[in-house]
Amino acid sequence: EVQLVESGGGLVQAGGSLRLSCAASGFTFDDYAIGWSRQAPGKGREGVSCISSTDGSVYFLDSVKGRFTISTDNAKNTVYLQMNNLKPDDTAVYYCNTGGVWGQGTLVTVSP
Predict the structure, then answer these.
(1) How do residues 80-105 score in pLDDT, each as one tens digit?
(2) Which of 28, 70, 99, 108 sits between 20 and 30 A of 47, alpha carbons compared?
(3) How far is CA 60 from its chain centroid?
(4) Which residues of 23-51 are buried (b: 16+ CB within 10 A; e: fewer)?
(5) What string of DSSP letters covers 8-44?
(6) In angstroms, rounded to a whole number, what is the distance separating the alpha carbons of residues 98 and 90?
(7) What b/e sequence results for 74-92 when a residue is b if at least 16 CB atoms lie within 10 Å of its CB, and e otherwise?
């Protein structure tokens, strides 16, 4: 059974940074595409970033380009989302996802 557990969310002031972690189990971490999505209050879910192990390609939502980075630690079966220069519009529940499986989410709140 594939399981994803996110952590690292919290309250931060605008301009601050957070690093989200997603610990994965139940699948081969070196043969995957895994990513992060978010859902802001009253809005739909949107893809933020993802990374592919097959070619190392990455994707970022336009509004986070230059501020967020995605990385993996295959030994720990963990994917990270480093978020810098956070803005109030980044406030959302952030979810890790792969192959149709979603974690429980972690809340990020950015104050003005």
Answers:
(1) 999 999 999 999 999 999 988 999 99
(2) 28
(3) 10
(4) bbeebebeebebbbbbeeeeeeeeebbbb
(5) --EEEETT--EEEEEEEESS-TTS-EEEEEEE-TTS-
(6) 21
(7) eeebbbbbebeebeeebbb
